[in-house]
Amino acid sequence: MKWLLCSEVEFFSSINKCNNSLTHGLDKLLWKYLKLIIKDTICLKKIINIADAYFELGYWSLHFKVSTSIIIPKPNKDLYNSSKIFRPIILLNMLGKLIEKVIGKRLQFYLISNNFIHLSQLGSLKQYLSSDTGVTLTHFIYTNWIKNNTTSTLAFDIAQFFPSSNH
After folding, report:
1. Which of 8, 25, 97, 119 is 20 to 30 Å from 157 by CA-CA measure?
2. pTM of the predicted protein model
3. Inter-residue contact 123 to 32 (CB < 8 Å)
4. Of 117, 132, 152, which residue sits at a domain end?
5. What is the pLDDT of residues 55-103, one digit of tens each?
6. How many CA atoms lie within 13 A of 98 on its CB side?
């Protein structure tokens, strides 16, 4: 299937958005080094072959699944006697993270372009804003008005469900 094959453009667009100052991965590789590696066309083609093979087989190697969690104390705190004062981060293999980004974008494009996702299911989709949700809600209301149906909406403040989060 042609749509399965990843392209160089997908890898460059995925990695260009990655912050060079972020911490290294489990493999001690930084994004800035991976960016240099994929500039070499031979290396990039090998990485694309790996991604295509994983995608076609529907298999993800244990090498990319291994992770390590580390706990980092938040700066400028007087006391460190509460779990909310620490921030856990998970270190993964950086090449695996890049391949996941490319495959995730490809799957999302395929799902949206083939109408596999309902218009109201906008959560976690890239390039969808809260204004898009408002437009979708307005569309549903007008569609029901045309059908002489009554439409109601229930809204609530989810911030109250997460009192320890900075809103």
Report:
1. 119
2. 0.61
3. no
4. 117
5. 788 888 888 888 888 888 888 877 777 777 888 887 888 888 888 888 8
6. 34
Share of the chain above pLDDT 70, in %: 77
- Joined together, the tokens standing for residue 140 give 């549903």
Instruction: Compute the residue count for the chain.
Output: 167
Shared domain for 67 and 145, answered yes or no, is: no
Q: At what angle do helices 8-16 and 31-39 cross, to 10 degrees?
A: 150
Final residue of a structural domain among 100, 117, 134: 117
Vertex 26, ends 64 and 33: CA angle to 5°? Answer: 95
The residue segments making up the domain with residue 139 are 118-167
In this prediction, the residues of the chain whose per-residue pLDDT falls under 70 are: 1-6, 23, 112, 117-133, 155-167
